[in-house]
Specification:
- This protein has 323 residues and is an alpha+beta fold.
- The protein contains 16 helices and six strands.
- Strands 1-4-5-6 form a four-stranded mixed beta sheet. Strands 2-3 form a two-stranded antiparallel sheet.
- Strand 4 and strand 5 (74-82) form a beta hairpin.
- It is elongated and about 80 Å long.
């Protein structure tokens, strides 16, 4: 007689696809306090195939969703059958849970759903030999319990005072520039930074390369926020850093080149743009790559880099992966 592959799986799925059986299963196995808040009339079998970002397609066994009382919120039940004990089962359940949440949001919801993961086990080993707690699957479970799946750590620069930031050592310059990047008096703030001990001490310790990165950030963040004040920023830098005029003017030339490229592109049709990409000289291509790299380092948005440099998605992505 021919054997049926995964006969246990097939039987569990076939059974639980019957709504009345699923209702009896949930009533038998859910905590009474949870079952009582469910509107079982709304219990619905949903799509069981998930494709979370960055993961291969996942096939869950049975997924039901049910309304909570008369509320608009839902609780989702992920019911899986196991006759063995695969490694990192609790983590796999977590992946499924996040995938279901992502699918729920993609459907247009704006809040995360409750997801309850359930496993039916009938393997050879009894009782179930593995932990159902994902924390036990970390290399350092106790430390994981203290750190993981907690509210994320927030450093809100908009509420930190300059006095607090000044105590942060080498990161203080970065934080100060970010804090004031949207200030109306950005140029005045710049002059103050360049005369400060934070600036001089940081550059002295981190060297020339970081100094160039700071200037690049100032240029391109200003382009994003205040395109019309570029000349004023260049003048302010030349006044406060008279020994760095060569570096400043190099950046200014790159900024001018970006403006020209952007202006040309805005007047071109999409088909003409593709033709220019194919006919681009190697020198122009290398220049575009250099500009894109600096813009990436300064945190300029992907779409703006693509628009200005005429590089393809693949070319810009390759730069991101290298750096």
């Amino acid at each position: 007689m021919a054997r049926i592959h995964q006969i246990h799986d097939k039987f569990v799925k076939r059974s639980l696809q019957e709504k009345r059986i699923a209702m009896a299963f949930l009533q038998a196995h859910l905590p009474a306090a949870i079952y009582q808040i469910l509107n079982m009339e709304t219990l619905t079998l949903t799509n069981k195939s998930l494709v979370p970002p960055g993961l291969r397609e996942i096939h869950c066994d049975i997924v039901y969703q049910c309304q909570i009382d008369r509320d608009d919120g839902f609780i989702i039940f992920l019911i899986e059958h196991q006759s063995s004990t695969p490694e990192l089962m609790a983590f796999r359940k977590l992946q499924y849970t996040v995938g279901l949440m992502d699918q729920y949001l993609r459907a247009g919801h704006t809040k995360l759903p409750l997801v309850l993961s359930i496993c039916i086990y009938h393997g050879k080993k009894s009782p179930y030999p593995s932990s159902t707690d994902v924390y036990d699957e970390f290399e350092h479970p106790e430390l994981a319990r203290q750190l993981v799946f907690k509210p994320f750590i927030l450093i809100d620069l908009t509420t930190l005072s300059e006095e607090e930031i000044e105590k942060h050592g080498l990161v203080a310059l970065m934080e100060m520039l970010l804090k004031h990047s949207r200030a109306k008096d950005f140029i005045g703030q710049l002059k103050r930074f360049f005369y400060s001990a934070i600036f001089s001490n940081t550059i002295e310790l981190l060297g020339r390369e970081y100094f160039n990165d700071v200037l690049t950030y100032i240029f391109y963040s200003n382009v994003n926020q205040r395109p019309r004040s570029s000349d004023a920023v260049i003048q302010a830098l030349k006044e406060t850093l008279p020994n760095e005029e060569e570096v400043i003017m190099t950046l200014a030339e790159e900024l001018e080149q970006i403006g020209k490229q952007k202006g040309r592109q805005e007047g071109m049709q999409k088909g003409m743009r593709k033709g220019m990409k194919k006919g681009r000289r190697e020198g122009e291509y290398q220049k575009a790559l250099s500009i894109a790299k600096k813009m990436l380092e300064a945190g300029v948005e992907f779409a703006f880099i693509k628009q200005v440099t005429e590089l393809s998605d693949e070319e810009i992505t390759a730069l991101i992966q290298k750096h």
